[in-house]
Amino acid sequence: MRNKVSHIYRVPLLLSVTFIIALIALRVERDYLNIAQIILGGLTGTFLLDLDYLLHAFFIDPTSQISKKLAEYVKHKDYGGFLNFAQEHKYDIPDKTLNSALFQVVLAAAGIFIVWSSPNIFMKALLLSTLLNSIYRFIESYVEGKSAVWFWSLKIDQRKSAIFTYGGLIIALFTVLMIFA
Questions:
Q1: Rounded CA separation 78/46 (Å)
Q2: 63: Cβ–Cβ under 8 A, 6 or more apart, which residues?
Q3: Longest Cα pair distance anywhere in the chain, in angstroms?
C-alpha cells in the first residue's frame, strides 16, 4: 500500500523539493525560521490539490458511489487506500474544483497579489508549490488525453494550439512569480 502511495507522489514530491531548493537559493535565505517556512509551505502545496477528493466526497456530491467509497476510506482512517482509490478514479470524478483551469487562474491571480504584497514566506511557498503541482497535473492530464476535464469550468477551445498557449502562459507566469518571490 505504501509503495503505491509513494509511486503516486514520486514526481510531485520531486518537484516540490526542487522548488524548495530553488526558492531558498533565489532568495539567498539564511534565516532558519524562513527556511523552515519554505520547506513546510512547499511540502504542504504538494498535497493541497488532493483536498479536491475530500470536497467531492463530503460537500459536492456525497451521494455518488465514488464519494461513498472515499468517505468510507476516511471513516476507517485508511488514508493510503483513500489516495490510491482517488488516483485510480481521478478521471471518474466530474467537475473537480481544485484540479481545474479555473483554480489555476485563481492561483495565478492570488500569486501575483501575494508575491508582491505579502512578506509571509510560508504563504508564498504554499501558493507557488500548489501552482507548480497544479501545472504538473495539467500536463499529466494532457499527456493522458484528458485535458477536457481540466477545462470544464472555462469555455476554452480544446485545440492543441490553445492548450499549448494556455500552458505556456501559466508556466511563464509561474517563472516570473518564482523570480520575484
A1: 20
A2: none
A3: 50
pLDDT in single tens digits along all 181 residues of the chain = 556 767 888 999 999 999 999 999 998 888 999 999 999 999 999 999 989 888 888 888 888 898 889 889 989 988 888 888 888 888 888 778 888 889 999 999 999 999 998 789 999 999 999 999 999 999 999 999 888 888 877 766 678 888 899 999 999 999 999 998 8
Rounded to whole angstroms, the Cα distance separating 133 from 174 reads 11
Do the beta carbons of residue 23 and residue 38 sit within 8 Å? Answer: yes
| Cα–Cα dist 136/142, whole Å | 10
Those residues with Cβ within 8 angstroms of residue 11's Cβ, 6 or more apart along the chain or in another chain = 136
159 to 151, 153, 164, 165: CA distances (angstroms)? 12, 16, 9, 10
Burial (CB count within 10 angstroms: exposed 0-12, middle 13-18, buried 19+), residue 96 = buried
Nearest one of 124, 106, 137 to 29, comparing CA atoms: 124
pTM here is 0.90
Please report, for residues 51, 71, 74, 131, 133, the alpha-carbon distance to residue 15 in angstroms, rounded to integers and kept in the order given.
19, 29, 27, 11, 7
Q: d(Cα 28, Cα 31) in Å, to the nearest integer?
A: 9
